[in-house]
Automatic annotation (TrEMBL):
Recorded name of the encoding gene: argJ
Stated name of the protein: Arginine biosynthesis bifunctional protein ArgJ
Function: Catalyzes two activities which are involved in the cyclic version of arginine biosynthesis: the synthesis of N-acetylglutamate from glutamate and acetyl-CoA as the acetyl donor, and of ornithine by transacetylation between N(2)-acetylornithine and glutamate.
NCBIfam families: ArgJ (TIGR00120), PRK05388.1 (NF003802)
Subcellular location: Cytoplasm
Catalytic site: 190
GO molecular function: L-glutamate N-acetyltransferase activity; L-glutamate N-acetyltransferase activity, acting on acetyl-L-ornithine as donor
Annotated HAMAP family: ArgJ
InterPro entries membership: Arg_biosynth_ArgJ (IPR002813), ArgJ-like_dom_sf (IPR016117), ArgJ_beta_C (IPR042195)
Organism listed in the record: Ktedonobacter racemifer DSM 44963
Subunit note: Heterotetramer of two alpha and two beta chains.
Pathway: Amino-acid biosynthesis; L-arginine biosynthesis; N(2)-acetyl-L-ornithine from L-glutamate: step 1/4; Amino-acid biosynthesis; L-arginine biosynthesis; L-ornithine and N-acetyl-L-glutamate from L-glutamate and N(2)-acetyl-L-ornithine (cyclic): step 1/1
Swiss-Prot/TrEMBL site (Involved in the stabilization of negative charge on the oxyanion by the formation of the oxyanion hole) positions: 118-119
Length: 403
């Protein structure tokens, strides 16, 4: 797969025809920190989107879901520091006003503008700051990395990637960014994500491929098991590569599919790695499940187990925590059949402890990346999930979040 794709710079502005810009307008309490950003295409795009399944959905999510029905768009405006959630009719009005301001700035119809917000819930957007900030944003194809930084909240670093590959024998590009470090739970993981491509893609196929990619990446991440109100993933395809629009029958459809999975899985891992207070990234691979759905249940259950997350933080290869999480996940589970590995070291077989090299097991737990493999020996189902350890740093972050 590595031979197919080449990593390049500028993430979401790497594909031709995309520009971005940022500013610090004072929404965040820290003066001078970038907290407002725009991403725009030079031409209208086919747009796909996936959103939170939370019953308390933020105003920008409601706006995006409405506008996505047309499947067309050209820009997104994003603020950090304020979620614009649980803000009633005024909050919804402010979300629409946010897109109107961006539309005026860009010379576009408001209906072509999407918006997102991230930050503290329950506070109205300071619209006077947006009114002043949006017009001063300078746009450039060089500012993709800055866009990734401006959308962060408790993230310690930006998450971004762009790939170059071939469609119909010509070089094309796909870029992506995410933000997310806490309030992370599948369906969707607590996050904002924006993907851009210069490939032409049929709308229905783009939407299906995005949903499938999200299911195997962003929906397989957990930091703390808490679901967010603002989760948004949008993909913009402007077609400037000039290819025949991709669909399921196109001979290069699989190449695009793999590129999309490459980026979303990379960004999913980076969110887990940057979990609030985290010191370790854990990858959970479940195989031998009855089917994929059962493998997903087992893998997700382990990433959401605070008992196992604490063992992970302490470097304790307590495989009983692993078995307990998998057995309570709701998947089909034979207590006399499962095997467990930490790294390359097998520590349980057929549901029981075995003699193993404890030094090797502790060494496998000691690094900043830990791999856990569970074989249920019940079928061909496989799934991979990502999470992190649970440390006092998580408490520190979330006990003072609104101060």
């Amino acid at each position: 797969m590595a031979e197919l794709f080449h990593e390049i710079d500028h993430c979401v502005t790497a594909p031709q025809g995309f520009r971005a810009g940022t500013t610090a307008c004072g929404i965040k309490s820290d003066a001078g920190i970038k907290d407002l950003a725009i991403l725009v295409s030079d031409v209208p795009c086919t747009v796909g989107g996936v959103f939170t399944t939370h019953n308390l959905r933020a105003a920008p999510v409601l706006l995006c879901q409405e506008r996505l029905q047309d499947g067309q768009g050209q820009a997104v405006v994003v603020n950090s520091g304020n979620a614009n959630c649980a803000t009633g009719e005024q909050g919804l009005h402010n979300a629409y006003r946010m897109t109107e301001l961006a539309a005026t700035k860009l010379g576009l119809a408001p209906e072509l503008i999407f918006c997102s917000s991230t930050g503290i819930i329950g506070r109205q957007l300071p619209m006077e700051k947006l009114e002043a900030g949006i017009p001063q944003i300078e746009l450039s194809s060089e500012y993709g990395d800055a866009f990734a930084e401006a959308i962060m909240t408790t993230d310690t670093r930006p998450k971004r990637l762009a790939l170059e590959f071939e469609i119909e024998g010509q070089a094309v590009r796909l870029g992506g960014v995410t933000k997310g470090a806490g309030m992370i739970r599948p369906n969707m993981a607590t996050m904002l994500s924006y993907l851009t491509t210069d490939v032409a893609v049929e709308r229905a196929w783009l939407q299906q491929e995005l949903r499938d990619a999200v299911n195997d990446s962003y929906n397989m991440v957990s930091v703390d098991g808490d679901m967010s109100t603002n989760d948004t993933c949008l993909i913009f395809a402007n077609g400037l590569a000039g290819n025949t629009p991709l669909n399921a029958q196109h001979p290069d459809a699989e190449t695009f599919r793999q590129a999309l999975r490459y980026i979303t899985c990379y960004l999913a891992r980076e969110m887990a790695r940057d979990g609030e207070g985290a010191t370790k990234l854990q990858t959970i691979h479940v195989r031998g499940a009855r089917d994929k759905a059962d493998a997903v249940l087992a893998a997700r259950s382990l990433t959401r187990s605070p008992l196992w997350q604490c063992a992970l933080a302490g470097g304790d290869p307590n495989w009983g925590r692993i078995a307990a999480a998998a057995g309570s996940s709701g998947c089909e589970f034979d207590q006399n059949a499962f095997d467990i590995f930490i790294g390359e070291t097998q520590i349980a077989a057929k549901g029981m402890a075995i003699d193993y090299d404890q030094d090797q097991a502790h060494a496998a737990m000691a690094g900043d990346e830990v791999l856990i493999t569970i074989d249920l020996h019940l079928g061909n189902g496989e799934a991979t999930a990502w999470g992190c350890d649970l440390t006092h740093g998580y408490i520190d972050e979330n006990s003072l979040y609104t101060r």
